[in-house]
Design goal:
The chain has two domains: 74 residues, no CATH class; 53 residues, Nucleic acid-binding proteins (OB fold (Dihydrolipoamide Acetyltransferase, E2P)). 44% of the residues lie in helices and 21% in strands. The model has no long low-confidence stretch (mean pLDDT 88). The protein is α+β, with helices and mostly antiparallel strands.
Amino acid sequence: MSWWSWLVIGIGLLAAEMFLIDAQFYLLFLGVAAALVGLLGLVGVPLPDWGQWVVFSILSLASVLAFRRPLYQMIRNRSGHVEQRLTLGDRVTVPVRLEPGATCRVDYRGSTWSARNVDGSAIEAGTEAVIDQVEDLTLRIKAG
């Protein structure tokens, strides 16, 4: 088979994996192996047809066995959650007067959060409050 045929097959397998079907990265490694066989032909390594198929098979099998599981777990196990620990005791500025038990929106570390006054007294507008606890996406704050 000619070198460009292997490249076309490789690109086709890569495209199928990326855009058409979720084959759990099997087609990715088959496509890379086909492209490598095509590149071998392009640089002038003379292989008979059966040799090309043997090299393709060995590259495919070796890469799937060696790299598929770690790569698949690394890519698929991402939850999209960015772990950033909130520091209890940090201060936030309360934009409005906040009565005990009431909530408002505050800016903290570049994001807007809900904040609930868990103190026994009101927090005046424009003053700083201390983060006492974090409950889901709500900062529990006290007068600081």
